[in-house]
What does this fold into?
Amino acid sequence: MLDRILEVIGTSWADSTKELYGTGLLIFHVYCDIHNIAEVERCPISRALLLSFLSSCTGSYSGSAISNYAVGIRAWHLLHGHPWNIDQDELHIKIICSYLNLDDLCDAAIYACMVVVFYCVVRLGEFMVKAVKVFNPDSHVTWHNFVSLFNKDNLPVLQFTLPKTKCKPVKEEAVQCAPQSGCIMDPEAAIRNHFRINPAAPSDHLFAWKHLKGSLRPLSKTQYTTRIIAIVKQCGLVNLQGHSLRIGGTLFYLLKGVPFDAIKVMGCWKGDVFMLYLRHHTLILAPFLQAEHQILDNFNRIAMLLVC
It folds into this structure.
């Protein structure tokens, strides 16, 4: 039966798709051989190994090629019944990063903003301005509003105080996330890189970047959206705008076992708003609606292969 399932899955892919997946797997295994990575460590793949491999491809291969290599590795796992423990939204942002030059002044600001919004589970619009000319340090997040803290157990937390939010246009709201050194992306590394190449004053916008004309510009929604849309069209990914980032961040924490109430606090949802949000986004609840997780896993391996 298993051989028959594998045969059906294999013949369901076009020859060009199998060639592309095969190329990606070959490059992956060559990378592992060069770095003396044992076969048992290649599958199931760890976040750290996948990150290292994709990072090594950046600059040598196009973003669309890197995206397909990642999909090929995932298909290889699922085809042979091995778990895929990589969050897809995290992976998409990493693939987008392969198009961004993190030494570029604007790209570094965009990437830092994207990663912080994802892990803080907040609205994208609360971390940027609608237009460059409307920036107001009393209304928009600034360098002064960011602080790195440690709790009594010496666990790090990145805290951002938003002067105004959609739900609280007058009162401040603190949002937070933690460094993610073992994940595909790390918000602390992203924001430190941005700070390094875009130094600014405490009263400047948190994601201000230095324009070619020499002046600092707060990161605007137009600047962010234009850049991201151009990238996702090139590599065929879902457009990671504000709402999808919040959905992805919510799902990321839920699948890691973080309680609903904790995520509700992180995302600054009030009253029953969080429950209404969940009801309107079935994909968030889907993993928790299954009666038989093993049946779901088997079904995913056969029917839910992601093809780019």
